[in-house]
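Justification of resources, computational component.

The compute hours requested in this renewal are based largely on the per-chain cost of generating structure records like the one below. Each record pairs the submitted sequence with a full structure-token output. That output is archived, and it is also reused by downstream analysis tasks.
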Amino acid sequence: MKKALITLSLFASSWSFAQNQLHQVLVVNEGYFDYQTGAILEPVTIGSYNPTTQLYQVVDTLENMRFASDLVIDGDFYYVAADSKIFKMDLNTHQEVASVSCPGVRNLAVYQGKLAATRGEYLTTYDSYLHVYNTTDLQLIQAFDTVTGPKWATQNIVIDGATAYLVVNNAYEWGNEKGIIGQLNLANLSYGNEVDLGPDGKNPDNLIKYGSALYTVNNKDWTGTSISKFELATNASTTVNIANAVAGCGTSALRDDKLTYQISMETSLNNFDINGMNNNGPVNGINMNFYELAQEPLSGLLYASSTDFFSFGTVYIYDATNTEIYQFSAGVSPGTIVFDIRSSAGITETKTNFSISPNPTNDILTIQGKAANEVINVVDLNGTIVLSSTDSTLNISQLPTGIFFVNINGTCQKVIKL
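The structure output for this chain reads:
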């Protein structure tokens, strides 16, 4: 869902920091593979959209790959999961730095020089569904077998601290879908502490971290959709059924403090209140069938892709009022959208137009100087939105001790949580 790298320049002599800016939007176009003939009719491409010039260009083509499923940014590089290989690319030149064979690779996550990769493939059984690589040269560090690691196909993965949480869904074995969240300790490379989400939490497709919990969007046995909440502190889970049809592959995203999702083949978007764990009504103003949803964490703009999976791909950009402000063509089957957010260190910082008090604090933040409908995003050091609200008072008591950033329309201020 929706991963962004935020590089921050902190100054020890003051509590100011460089302004963060959206440098580019990376789009993974999955291409078109004809499974009947075995021919690649449209190749997998990586595209870059410049939000300043509004220009989109293809920056790389991944030859001989049937599809691609994920992209993550880490420092000056990004990593792409594509069918049977993992690619390491230079973030600025988009030149390939390294690659490694990994059949069935699905999703990726990076932690301190380690790249975790989940695996799964239709009608294919592997002896390992979880790999860990060295980010420098993509050398394999460890392949967890089905005794020491997940027993079935794995997919989405989210990192919290030194723990990688991953969903074990076995989605490629019809009638035997699983709904398990497993935990990989990236410090000592041990796997365990699996938690079953129950009969209504089977086949999780998306995994999102918000505050002190993880949320999964589940396709169950392909006859309905549910959403599960997994408490990180207690490993307790709660599941709510939301539809008698599936949400499909990836058409859900955290948007402020709501989980926005779409049921397969429908043209309306829906909001799910993750605080109350209930549907919050449809999203007004947007009526289109989408493939991928992603919220840009600085501006709050929603990027949504649409495709027929064989001839076109278009990315639409919506503001907070759900008004389309721009669109651009993006190859075929744009399925992953990632935001490259960078620090403007060395550039004169624009003075912020809002204030925060008290700071530091351990519970309540009061924001002064914001407009009534402006969205406040609280972002952690990994660039993850951990809290969103339009209220001028924020309760951050559930956040861990540390440094966070309050962002309003791209303007940020640091806050210290005691």
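The chain has no helices and 38 strands. The chain has two domains: 4-343, 355-417.
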